[in-house]
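Lab manual, section 2.4: Encoding a predicted structure.

Procedure: take the sequence of the chain (386 residues), apply the prediction step described in section 2.3, and record the output as C-alpha cells. A sample record is shown.
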Amino acid sequence: MKFSTKLIHSGRPADSITGALTAPIYQTSTYSQESPGSPRQFEGRGLSYARTENPTRAGLENALASLEDAQYALAFASGLAACNTILNLLKSGDHVIAGRDLYGGSYRMFTKLYTKFGVEFTFTDITDMNEIEKAFRSNTKILWLESPSNPLLSIVDIAAASKIAKAHGALIVVDNTFATPYLQSPLKLGADIILHSTTKYINGHLDVLSGALVTNDEAIWKELKFYQNAVGAVPGPQDCFLILRGLTTLDIRMDKHCTNGKKVAEYLDGNKKISRVYYPGLKSHPGHKIAAMQMKDFGAMVSFDLKDKAQAVTFLKNLKLFTLAESLGGIKSLVCHPATMTHASVEPAMRLEAGIGDGLIRLSVGLEDPEDLVADLDQALKLTLS
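Recorded output:
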C-alpha cells in the first residue's frame, strides 16, 4: 500500500464483533482468562493485563510500524518514556554519542539520570563525520542522532553516520520527530531504532502525550518490549485512539506545514535585521543538500537568532497569533524560547557551545493562513527592532 492508504487503513481493521469502522477504545485494565496462565488471544497477542497488551494500543503500534515500513513498533506514555526505554538497553560503563544541540529533555535524562548509573555520554557535532568518528570508544554502544535537530535544525547524513556506527558495532538511534515517517525513513538509511514523540506531528492536535519506538530487528524489539512491560510507561487506550485518529491526516497536514514553514523561513531570511535563520529548506543552510536527498520536504520548524534575551522576550510579548508554549507539531502555530523553556535544563556553557543562544527563537509553524503568520511575525519584529 502507498503511504496515504496506510494512514487510513493500517491498524484500523473493522471491529470483528460489531463491524464498526472506527477501532474501539478498549478501556480496560485487565481481561478474563479461561484458565490460569492462558491469556485470551486477539489478533496474535495474548491479553492478560492492559499494561502488557491492549488492542487499541496494538492497533497504533501496527500502524506506526507500517508507516516506517518496519516489522515492529512500541507505543509509550511520552517521547521521554520511549527515550528511557532505549537507554534501558545499556549497562554501567557503556558509552553514548549524541549531538550538542540535542533536545533538552533527552540531555537532562542522559546527564542527570543515566550518568549516576555509570553510563557515559559524549556530545559532539554530529553533522561532521570526522567528529563522530573521533568520538567513538571501545565501549560505545549507541550513536544517537536527531535530524533535523532540536532546536537548531541541524541535518545529519544518516546513511554516512550509520556506516561509521556499524563499523564500530554500535546501534543507531534516530529521533524522527521533526521529520515524521512522511518526510524521512531512517531505517532505510541504516538506523536500528527510530524514536518519535508522537505527541507532536503524528498526533498533530496538541491534545495527547505519547511516544513510540520502531525497529526491524526482532532481538531489539523483544528486549524493548520486555522493558515496556516491566517499566509500564504505556499510553492509555484513549491516547492511542487520538493518535490513530490524528494519523489519518498526517500527509495532508505535513504538506501544509511544509508549505507554511517555507514561507515563514523565506520571510525571516529576507529580514536584514535578523542575523541568522535556521531552516534546512533554505539553500544557505549548511545541511540543505543532505536534507534534500534524505527528506521528502523540509518540515515546518524554523529557528532564528535575535540579539539577546531581552530582545527575545520583547518579541515574544509582541506576537498575537503565535502562542508562547512548549511542544510543537500541532495545527496551531507555537513559539518557544529554548534557553528558558525546552533547553532550560542544559547548562548555560553547554547551550552556548552548541549554538543555543539567549536570543534564539524556535517556531513551530502551524496550519493557519501563511499570510497571517508572516504578518504577525512582521508586526512583532517591527515593534521589537524599531
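Check your result against the sample. The CA atoms of residues 309 and 322 lie 18 Å apart.
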